[in-house]
Design brief:
Structural class: alpha/beta
CATH class of one domain: Alpha Beta
Number of helices: 8
Strand order of the largest sheet: 2-1-3-4-5-10
Shape: globular
Distance between the termini: 36 Å
Oligomer: single chain
Order of helices and strands: EHEEHEHEEHEEEHEEHEHH
Helix content: 25-40%
Length: 278
Amino acid sequence: MSLRVGITGARGYLGSTLVRHFRNTGCEPAAWHRGAEAGSRYELGGNLKSLDWRNVGAVVHCAYDFRARGWEDIHRINVESSLSLLGETVSRGARFVFISSMSSYEGCQSLYGKAKLEVEKAVLAAGGTVIRAGLIYGDPPGGLFATLCRAVRALPLVPMIGRGNFPQCLAHHDDLARLVAGVADGSLVLPACPHSAAHPQAILFRDLLRKIAVLQGRRTTFLPVPWRAIYAAMVCAERAGLGLSFRSDSLLGLVHANPAPVFDLPGGFRPFPEGAGT
């Protein structure tokens, strides 16, 4: 029997893309997620011994619990649980691929980026691979990109975060899946450092929204709103218990992008499309 790849967060946007990619290439992955049956049920902080580890030669860790608020909860749920999974994987002699984010870098502002950064350091020290994914897009859209698409499609007047002059680097989900699969199966060996995974040509946030509007055939007007005002309103809403599809911490990650990402990966990523289709 060939070695399997365990994928945490297998029902998330990237996780489900990876599951589909492996299946299309004739490799049935171990899809680990909260809603799975016994042996495949994975939850951050859960019992790792109960997972089906048979013939698992690599683990791709995509899972992140966005419900956690405040650094203590984020650290306990996302950081400590990720370190436990890393330790379990290494003890079994399997490769560990950590899906981080380009929001993660020294000096980052968001708690999400800081949590990812702490796990990154442990993964690299243990001989694992760190991939910092850019803003992931594709068809069908998911994650943050889907939130942006919905806002542009539903609102004739879309609030613009500040002047929208913060750069975004985008990664098509199929390109990212091919990269991750190559690292997971051992056919691609990367140096021991964080790797930025996205097309190297950044797009300003305002231009990205305009491109999304064109792709959707929309004539949309954007209303600039100071980002700090948006951030304050989102924090108040979150403290009031309102569930937002886009979190205040994510806003920090958008506004405070990595000022100097390094792109050193082979193969490359396609540019964001100018015309119809993704």
